[in-house]
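Last lecture ended with a question: if I hand you only a sequence, what can you say about the shape of the protein? Today we answer it with a concrete record. The protein is No apical meristem-associated C-terminal domain-containing protein. Below, first the input exactly as provided, then the predicted structure, then a couple of comments.
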Amino acid sequence: QNQQSLGKGGLGPKRLKNFSTKEDGILCSAYLNVSKDPIVAVNQSSGSYWARITAYCEEHNCPRSKSSLQHRWGDIQKDTSRFCGFYAEVERKNQSGKSEDDKVKDALQMYEGIVESTFKFIHCWYMLRNEMKWNEWLASMSASNGEQSTEPAKASTDATLPPRIDRPNGRDRAKKPRTRLPAALPLSACLEVLQKMSMDRNAYEVRVEAATKEEAKDIASRSDRKLALQEEQLQVQKDQLQIQRELLELQKADREERVMSMDLEKLSPWVQEYYINKQKQISAMSLRGDGSSGPRGQ
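The predicted structure:
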């Protein structure tokens, strides 16, 4: 939209790049610093107001066209006011132990889950969140909708929105006869928006709950697999130990077999006496049943 506006309007140098974070900041600063005169506002055209916005941006090295700035501010206003609603909802939960950064992360996650897109104007939100002008506009939008909504700027998506957003109270009173009828028009639309947001939020919570359950199942499955693997490893160790024991028993039985079958006649008397004693010990253990040569002795 920015590129097309510049090409058709022919105002300012032609820019091929999207708005940068710095340019967004300059536009937000212009919104906060350029005000309307409540006395002359009744007869003042939106073009005059946006001419001053454009001039402010040019003075601060943001030479965009009026149309480009209007479209960009419309996007900033719509998405940022929506994020304000999500952040306010996170704050209302008043969860203990949550830092401001945690709340911002929760609001970003809620925004992405419900709106199904990433909030790309967080830098604008930090600039606007504590400014009186911005908060007064949010309050006026909530009042006009009849109840507080997490999307206070839902009805502000048309291209004529920017001249309306920063209208001071004096101008509102001056133009009340002209705006009263249109103000009643969005009531049904607001109710539809609130219903849709409630449905979207419920769907989001269902998705989060389902994801949490699925994650819990996955963790339990991984834990079961890990436990099964540990049990298999333990069984392998037991089997290896049993094999080692059997090998030791075989080696012992082989030694006893050699002792019992030795030809003692060829040995010297004192060596004969040693092996005779060993044979007696092996026989005694075999009779008690605690030796490995028991079956051989029988």
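Comments.
1. Residues 187-260 form the longest helix (74 residues).
2. Residues 213-297 form one domain.
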